[in-house]
Amino acid sequence: MEVGVAGDVPDVKKEDAQGKLGKGPVIVIRDGSMIPNLRLQDLFVETAEELKIPYQFDLLDRGGTDSGAIHLHRRGVPNLVMAVPTRHIHSHAGVIHRDDYDQTVRLVTSVIKKLNAETVANLTK
Fold first, then answer.
1. Position 30 confidence tier, pLDDT thresholds 50, 70, 90
2. What's the average model confidence in pLDDT over 66-94?
3. Which domains does the chain have, with CATH numbers?
4. How many Å apart are CA 4 and CA 28, to the nearest integer?
5. Fewer CB near the last or first residue (10 Å), C or N of the chain?
6. Any idea what DSSP says for residue 53?
7. 72-77 contacts: CB < 8 A, separation 24 or more?
8. Largest CA distance in the chain
9. What confidence tier does 9 reach under pLDDT thresholds 50, 70, 90?
């Protein structure tokens, strides 16, 4: 779970931040420190579509999160970054859209409920 740079403010280039407030959770397809597990990414996308949760993708050429270290642990840990699009990250007052937050919680909770032993084992096959 993370915040994503909302690209719907002045002086933010489209290639630097694709997320927009009010358009749903952000699934980060790559950042400067990690590439997500594609099967886990697909599980999030499929779940969002089943539940009719809007979602966005983002790609960051630089920067990173703890996910970068986690995905390299031992033989690798399936992970990805789910983010709430946020204006003015790294400031004392970020701005989010409440629906994005609620939909992100709903999506993550729904995916967690699907994670049984078989589903988890299939993430690394």
1. confident
2. 79
3. 2-119 (3.40.630.10)
4. 8
5. C
6. -
7. 76/124
8. 46
9. confident
